[in-house]
Design brief:
globular; 2 domains; 7 helices; about 250 residues; alpha+beta; His_PPase_superfam; 6 strands
């Protein structure tokens, strides 16, 4: 989460300097894949994020949120539902916004690219989209149709179903104009992400009860560091700081 917010922060600050109106917000629909085989850090609270990013819109509600452990189909469903809600909200916005900048993890990018292009490969491990750890993508909407969300039909976890496969995309047709663009990086492409394995599935009853991430996030560690630095002295503080720095690298 800290890497995502830090990545988009320079753009937000540039818009503020240029007097451009933007809505900088956190949406849980862009959260990483909730896999049963991975340990994840807690999602930062709005209070924590506001301290680092004062312009964050704390009143904005997420378009959707992870509902539990997600198998492959559920992860597709969540991303499709998020995109449908996002496009629908932009279409209905009276101010007529022309674009949205999303900053999220590599797995979300790969799945959302497939959804916007209406492509669902039989082999989910297919490398149809290259996703470096840091890269830029741009999808341009070429044909506009109303977004359709079937609120009556839901996945086992509870995501409303959105039709997007077999060449049918969400809200019209989309063209990818920038694909894994890395020319702005002095070192070029870094760490290509590819789907390496599919996590095992849980029955819906267990998936819905999948516990929230409980590892400390970056902000938790910083707050703990600050608290310790004001209450401890001598060698003990130095030892704690060294361990924490290593933990930050591992968790982030």
């Amino acid at each position: 989460m800290i890497l995502v917010t830090e990545t988009v922060k320079p753009f937000v600050e540039m818009c503020e300097r240029d007097g451009k109106a933007i809505n900088f917000r956190l949406d849980m629909g862009l959260s990483e894949w909730r896999r049963v085989d991975r340990k994840q850090a807690r999602i930062p609270s709005i209070r924590q994020l506001k301290e680092y990013h004062p312009t964050l819109d704390a009143q904005c509600q997420s378009l959707c949120s992870p509902l539990g452990h997600e198998n492959l189909d559920e992860f597709y469903a969540r991303n499709a539902y998020f995109l449908a809600k996002l496009i629908q909200s932009l279409d209905n916005d009276p101010e007529g916004p022309e674009s949205a900048l999303l900053c999220t993890s590599a797995s979300n990018i790969a799945w959302m690219a497939r959804i916007l292009m209406g492509k669902h490969p039989q082999n989910s491990m297919e490398r149809d989209f290259s996703v470096p750890a840091i890269s830029f993508y741009k999808f341009a909407r070429r044909h506009v149709v109303p977004v359709k969300i079937d609120a009556g039909e839901k996945t086992p976890l509870g995501y409303p179903r959105v039709e997007w496969q077999n060449g049918i995309s969400i809200g019209g047709s989309w063209e990818i104009t920038h694909n894994a663009e890395c020319s702005f990086l002095s070192t070029g492409i870094m760490m290509l992400w590819t789907p390496s394995d599919i996590p095992k599935s849980l029955p819906p009853s267990e998936a819905l009860q999948f516990p929230e991430p409980d590892l400390p996030n970056f902000f938790d560690i910083q707050e703990l560091n600050l608290k310790k630095s004001t209450t401890m002295t001598g060698p003990r503080v130095e030892a704690e700081t060294t361990i924490t720095a290593a933990a930050v690298e591992v968790l982030v």
